[in-house]
């Protein structure tokens, strides 16, 4: 059941255009040191609304979880895909992020006739028209929903592999290059879940004394 709450989240537009069946796409984990990159594609029905829906980065974890279940229960269609660390290291993170979005679009039923993508770059998908929208996850509901699904699915994955390598504290940092994560890499080296192409081996990382933004 959706909580009745007041929110500072913006009222998002449902879609970019009105004539074609449209999917919103976003990815999660592109800048992480460890773990796969995830992407989601979401189609929303007329009238879809949640007062807290926004860019996943602007929402607390417990609200993202609530939104995930609301989106899954109420979306017209959704799909989530991932591309492995091994493939990221082989084809690079930009191509892997694009592939993850394409895989999510492959899994959508019905098929999207138009795609709205967060960001400023997208490799065309089949012959489907698309538009790139900078900060689209804070403007369009279906892109925000895709950002929520990609983020929550990826976070759940990182929590699972945290049990295998708890000293990296992935349950907290989710694979991002936090000071704690960087210090753990300096002390323990990297493991099978780290992205070898990211120059994160001990000695390659910035000084731990540097300010992390």
Automatic annotation (TrEMBL):
<keyword id="KW-0464">Manganese</keyword>
<dbReference type="InterPro" id="IPR001352">
    <property type="entry name" value="RNase_HII/HIII"/>
</dbReference>
<keyword id="KW-0963">Cytoplasm</keyword>
<protein>
    <recommendedName>
        <fullName>Ribonuclease HII</fullName>
        <ecNumber>3.1.26.4</ecNumber>
    </recommendedName>
</protein>
<dbReference type="InterPro" id="IPR012337">
    <property type="entry name" value="RNaseH-like_sf"/>
</dbReference>
<feature type="binding site">
    <location>
        <position position="27"/>
    </location>
    <ligand>
        <name>a divalent metal cation</name>
    </ligand>
</feature>
<keyword id="KW-0378">Hydrolase</keyword>
<feature type="binding site">
    <location>
        <position position="26"/>
    </location>
    <ligand>
        <name>a divalent metal cation</name>
    </ligand>
</feature>
<dbReference type="InterPro" id="IPR022898">
    <property type="entry name" value="RNase_HII"/>
</dbReference>
<feature type="domain" description="RNase H type-2">
    <location>
        <begin position="20"/>
        <end position="210"/>
    </location>
</feature>
<keyword id="KW-0255">Endonuclease</keyword>
<feature type="binding site">
    <location>
        <position position="118"/>
    </location>
    <ligand>
        <name>a divalent metal cation</name>
    </ligand>
</feature>
<dbReference type="InterPro" id="IPR024567">
    <property type="entry name" value="RNase_HII/HIII_dom"/>
</dbReference>
<dbReference type="Pfam" id="PF01351">
    <property type="entry name" value="RNase_HII"/>
</dbReference>
<dbReference type="GO" id="GO:0004523">
    <property type="term" value="F:RNA-DNA hybrid ribonuclease activity"/>
</dbReference>
<keyword id="KW-0540">Nuclease</keyword>
<comment type="function">
    <text>Endonuclease that specifically degrades the RNA of RNA-DNA hybrids.</text>
</comment>
<keyword id="KW-0479">Metal-binding</keyword>
<comment type="similarity">
    <text>Belongs to the RNase HII family.</text>
</comment>
<dbReference type="InterPro" id="IPR036397">
    <property type="entry name" value="RNaseH_sf"/>
</dbReference>
């Amino acid at each position: 059941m959706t909580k009745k709450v007041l929110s500072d989240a913006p009222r998002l537009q449902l879609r970019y255009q009105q004539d074609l069946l449209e999917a919103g796409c976003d990815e999660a984990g592109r800048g992480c040191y460890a773990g796969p990159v995830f992407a989601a594609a979401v189609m929303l029905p007329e009238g879809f609304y949640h007062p807290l829906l926004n860019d996943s980065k602007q929402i607390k974890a417990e609200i993202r979880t609530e939104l995930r279940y609301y989106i899954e229960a109420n979306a017209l269609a959704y799909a989530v895909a991932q591309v492995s660390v091994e493939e990221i290291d082989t084809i690079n993170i930009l191509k892997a992020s694009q592939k993850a979005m394409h895989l999510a679009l492959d899994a959508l039923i019905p098929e999207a006739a138009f795609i709205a993508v967060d960001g400023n770059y997208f490799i065309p998908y089949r012959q489907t028209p698309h538009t790139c929208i900078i900060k689209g996850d804070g403007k369009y509901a279906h892109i925000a929903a895709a950002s929520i699904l990609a983020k929550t699915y990826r976070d759940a994955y990182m929590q699972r592999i945290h049990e295998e390598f708890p000293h990296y504290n992935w349950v907290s940092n989710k694979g991002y290059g936090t000071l704690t994560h960087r210090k753990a890499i300096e002390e323990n080296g990297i493991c099978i879940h780290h992205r070898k192409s990211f120059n994160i081996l001990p000695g390659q990382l910035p000084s731990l004394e540097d300010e992390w933004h």
